[in-house]
Every structure is written in structure tokens, then in C-alpha cells.
Amino acid sequence: VVTNQQVLSWLHPVTHASITRSSQPLVGASRKRSKEDEDYLSAILKANKYGKKLYVMDARPKINAYANIAMGGGYELDEAYPNMDFSFLDIGNIHVMRDSLSKLQDICYPDVDDQRWYSSLEATHWLDHIKTVLGGAVKVAEVIERQRSSVLVHCTDGWDRTAQLTALAMLMLDPFYRTIQGFEIVVEKEWISFGHKFSQRLGHGDRNHSDDQRAPIFLQFIDCVWQMTVQFPYAFEFNEHFLVTILDHLYSCLFGTFIGNCEKQREKLKVRVKTMSLWSFINSQLEIYKNPLYTESIQQVLFPSASIRKLELWKGYYLRWNPRMRPQEAEFERCRHLQVLIKLLREKCQELQEQQQRESQIATVVA
């Protein structure tokens, strides 16, 4: 049953501006109102003493939200929610995203057409969708950080586009989620625990390859994270290999982390008893997933550019199996080399510090 229950995702440690998520309001053709819902949103607004408005960001294009009215859904009525700002972020639905990925796959493998590469890539609209998702998350983060106001995010059901936006905004706002442990937590919390339908979206255990409920929603999220790591190479503890490993095992089913559509289903299947967690596998060999450029001491709020001029096709993932490309291995080896180099430099610094200390002690004795 789809409800409009609002759930807290993140709270600013200073201003108490919050990110709350939900599904669409069940307004319907009769334009129903809910006093409980109106009071709840008013309470979210009042809980933040700095914010003058509650910003409600609907991930959908407005025309899609309007179409949902006929099916009992819809969007908030302006007159029912005073002191609130409503906006639509124009992120396409699962069918649009699935079609875009299918076109991208066609141009990436087995052949890459060099002469028409850029026009073919543009025709997939994949980077346009990455721009829209990333840009929507930036808007959430800007309202929280710069306007010190709270945000309610929702789409239709609250488990696809909503998860993309809340998780990305949390990565921008909170440096903890940019660590390996923090990223694992945000995936567990915003995606797995809040009911992103992994099995249905990925087709786990389903031979119906034409199922129209499949969609690359989580892949898009990871792609957006990769775009952020490119723009802010010092801000993330993890490297590209970490993200690729997550995506590989998103589909492999070697681990139970992405099996099932919700907590109830995972409990019924006893996933946590019968399978190993992907995070246990990753955490057993952390060094290979660490970004050698990560600088913990200079962490701050990130506002990535969602301009199409700043976005890139993730060649290390989408083109890594093309015989003419193979970029992933080079990137991984470069990280390994940097890790070794940094280790040697730290050892040299330690050696010089100890030498300086010995020389100071000798000078003191002589004096």
C-alpha cells in the first residue's frame, strides 16, 4: 500500500534543517485533503527555527504528477499548505531511464562508432538524465545549506527518484557519507531499508527480460556519485574501483545485499542469515578501495556542477568490456601506484622527523 508517510532522512547538525522523504500525496480526482498530513508538514516547518518555508520538491515532471491524479495520486494543493514552496524537478520515470540505458548499451558494445560517437551519445540522453538527477540533488542541498530551510522530497512511490535525491544530497552535505563506511550506511538506509525494489528493478530471479518494471535507477545514482568524485577528487575516501565493485555485485547476486524488494521480503527469505553482505567483503580488503587523494582535513559541503559541459560518460564502467578501450584496469593500477607512493612518502617523512629529533637532542647535549 502506498502512503504519504513522511520519514526523516537527514538533519543538519547546526540549523536543524531537515531532509524528509515520502511518496506522492493521495489527492485523487476529488482533490482530497488530509488534516493530519497538513499538520505534519506544518510541524516539519516549525521544527526548523531558521526556515521561513518548507520546500516540497517533487522529482517528477509536472505533467506526470498531474496524470497520477486519475489513479488516486497527484501532488500537493497550494491552498492546503501555506508557507510552503512547491517545485517539480522533471526527472523522467523508469521507462524513460530504461530506454536511455538501452540506447547507451547499443553504442558502447560491441562496436564504438568513432565518426558518430558524440552524436550517438547525445541521442541516448543518458547524460541529460544524469544532469537532471544530479541537478535536483544540488537544489535540495542548496536549500538546506544556503537557505537553512527544510526540504520534503517525493516522487510517485518514494523508492526510486526520491532515493536518488536524498542520498545524493546527503553526500553533498555530510562528509561522513563520503567515507567508505558512511557510503555503505547511506545505501543501506536510503535505498535498502526504505524499500527500493532491487529485485524488481534488476530482474533478479525473473526470466522475463521484457519486464517493463526494470530500470537502472541505482546505476544512475552510482553514476552521479562518480561524477562528483571527478569534480571533487579529494573529497571521497573511496575510489572508482569501489563504485564498480558495488555495481558488479548489484547484478551478480553473490551477496545478499541487493536481493529482495523490501525488508519484509528479505526477512522472509532470511537473506541476512543465508548470505554474506557485500560490505563484509569490501571491508575485509579496504586498502584496494581507498582513494589515495582523499584529504579528511579539508572536508566541506559540496555543490557539484550539473552543467552538461562538466559531465562525462563514465568510460571506466560503460566501456570497460569493449576490446578497444579497457580503461578500468589502467585506472585501478594508477590508484594502486599512488597508494604505494603515498606510503613511501609518509615513511620518508617519518624518517626525516626522527632524524631531526635525534639531531636536536644531540645539539642540546653539546650545548
Automatic annotation (TrEMBL):
Active site location: 155
Protein residues bound to substrate: 93-94, 155-161
Coiled coil: 335-362
GO CC list: cytoplasm; membrane
Keyword Lipid metabolism: yes
Domain Myotubularin phosphatase intervals: 1-318
Record key words, sorted: Coiled coil, Lipid metabolism
GO biological process: phosphatidylinositol dephosphorylation
InterPro entries reported in the protein's UniProt record: Myotubularin, Myotubularin-like_Pase_dom, Prot-tyrosine_phosphatase-like, Tyr_Pase_AS, Tyr_Pase_cat
A molecular function (GO) term: phosphatidylinositol-3,5-bisphosphate 3-phosphatase activity
Similarity comment: Belongs to the protein-tyrosine phosphatase family. Non-receptor class myotubularin subfamily.
Protein's name in the database: Myotubularin-related protein 2
Source organism of the structure: Geodia barretti
Source lineage: Eukaryota, Metazoa, Porifera, Demospongiae, Heteroscleromorpha
